Amino acid sequence: MHIPTSPTTYIDVLPFEDALVEGLRPHPDYDVNKWLYVPNRYDEYRYILGTRGKNPLICVGINPSTAAPDNLDPTLKSAQRIALANGYDSFLMFNVYAQRATRPDDMERERNEWLHDENMKAFRYLLSLAGERPAVWAAWGAIIEKRPYLSDCVHEMEAIGREVGATWYHAGPLSVKGHPHHPLYLKSDTVLEPFDTKSYLTLMAAARK
């Protein structure tokens, strides 16, 4: 269980580029040739956690929990199995918001704009690792309703992805409200299907009015 100790505005947060430099260095606790972990230590936030490969699937959840290299939680284990079953050689876990909290109810009420901007830099970096048409798996479930700013984050991600020709997918049935299924409890051989992120966000915006 990870409960935030304070709002992220009160803690020292490394800019993404500085955290990436550290994350690419050899580490005594895990193999950096296998894992990409940014920052490369357990902290109140996380930009990236995943495995290295030439054909990665970018999996997008809501916010990080307790997972770390060689110590994946059940959600990330499921995400990794589904990525491999769909023909990808690796998976890269990214989150709509970078604050670490096991319970989404513990996420901060207001978005830390600086942390959000750094998180979007991390998303751009992941897209650059994924070839000419990056594959992005929307996997956040109904948890996106926990905070109004979360769908705003996805709006920005959709625009960033459109710039580089990213293709969005979902796995498993969509919810009644159209939310993409969370990875937990999906079968390992669940097939990814195209996800119309732009139309989904339009529905989300209409529901908020």
What are the main properties of this structure?
7-stranded mixed beta sheet; 31% helix; 209 residues; alpha/beta
Give the proportion of residues in helices.
Answer: 25-40%
Task: Count helical runs.
Answer: 5
| pLDDT < 50 stretches | none
What characterizes the major β-sheet?
A: 7 strands, mixed
Rg over alpha carbons: 16 Å
Word description of this protein:
- The longest helix has 17 residues, at 113-129.
- The protein has 209 residues and is an alpha/beta fold.
- 31% of the residues lie in helices and 15% in strands.
- The protein has a seven-stranded mixed beta sheet with strand order 1-2-4-3-5-6-7, sandwiched between helices.
- Helix 3 (113-129) packs parallel to helix 4 and helix 4 (148-163) runs antiparallel to helix 5.
- Strand 3, helix 2 and strand 4 (90-95) form a beta-alpha-beta unit.
Précis, in short:
The chain is α/β, with parallel strands linked by helices. It has helices spanning 16-23, 74-85, 113-129, 148-163, 197-208, and strands spanning 35-38, 48-51, 56-61, 90-95, 135-138, 167-171, 192-194.
Write the layout of secondary structure elements.
Elements: H1 16-23, E1 35-38, E2 48-51, E3 56-61, H2 74-85, E4 90-95, H3 113-129, E5 135-138, H4 148-163, E6 167-171, E7 192-194, H5 197-208
